[in-house]
Amino acid sequence: MEMVMRNLFQSLAKSRAANKMAKRYGLRFGAGRFVAGETIQRAIEAVRELNREGKVVTLDHLGEFVFTEEEANESADMCLKTLDAINEAGVSSNLSLKMTSLGLDISRELCVRNMRRILDRAKAYGNFVRIDMEDFAHCQISFDILRELRQEYDNVGIVVQAYLYRTMQDIDDLKELRLNLRLVKGAYKESPEVAYPEKKDVDANFRAIIKRHLLNGCYAAIATHDESVIADMKAFIKEQGISNDQFEFQMLFGICVDLQNRLVEEGYRVRVYVPYGIDWFGYFMRRLAERPANVWFVLKNMFK
């Protein structure tokens, strides 16, 4: 039953019709638990509060469906406005983005042009930009564009996903770039031809790629709510004498807040991924797919 629900939510996340319908209702039915708001003002308020709690942030202006150059440029403009707002507010946050929202599916040239606009602005502010990894179809081109951008910019990193067979090789191939990588398990529905179908294998590979990246001497953003993984990584880091300046724990806005607070109290750097914007539906569906238990939270909100 859990797998059926997961597949349903992953399918809905890709539905443009469902996304359009959801916009009519705003952040109802529990989505507000996982999304900071629909405006940059609300997002900055959330960042301020998280900063007060001793956490740093990465802001993501959500965008799921971009089909024209105009839409891609508008999405890039919102990334620029987000960087401006972070700088003007003086809050501690960097930026996360998806390259499909910048026109990757329209043309590589358009996407790279928008990426350069964003990285130039971020560099002027001394800020950092994280490229979110999307589904397997966008994996190789994302790495190719990253390599191109790293020839000009040192303030850009990317995400790698433990559920893909290729990821350990990617970790080794990227070692030379000394990248700040966010390491995640992965939230997209993929074929068993390219991804581990069993959770135990994903979990094992997740631990393995984190260790490899840390031993390579590179900065690791360990993105997980799995307390067993966190405990294992804390023990490994202590055993290897790795500095706390070489890693951070990352978690999603609204999830495992008590665990976030506990890690801050223990002296670890915790970064919270804070999404905002009107295109929240796809992101929300992927959160439900990752943890179907969240559905009960949504159902309770529906009947309030």
UniProtKB/TrEMBL annotation:
Its cofactor is FAD. The keyword Aminoacyl-tRNA synthetase does not apply. It catalyses: L-proline + a quinone = (S)-1-pyrroline-5-carboxylate + a quinol + H(+). GO terms for molecular function: nucleotide binding; proline dehydrogenase activity. GO terms for biological process: L-proline catabolic process to L-glutamate. Signal peptide: none annotated. Substrate binds at residues 98, 286-287. InterPro entries: FAD-linked_oxidoreductase-like, PRODH_bac_arc, Proline_DH_dom, Proline_oxidase. Keywords: FAD, Flavoprotein, Nucleotide-binding, Oxidoreductase, Proline metabolism. Its EC number is 1.5.5.2. Residues 44-298 form the Proline dehydrogenase domain. Pathway: Amino-acid degradation; L-proline degradation into L-glutamate; L-glutamate from L-proline: step 1/2. Binds 1 FAD per subunit. The keyword Cell inner membrane does not apply. Pfam families: Pro_dh (PF01619). FAD binds at residues 133, 161, 185-187, 199, 224-225. This is proline dehydrogenase. It comes from Paenibacillus contaminans. The lineage of its organism: Bacteria, Bacillati, Bacillota, Bacilli, Bacillales.
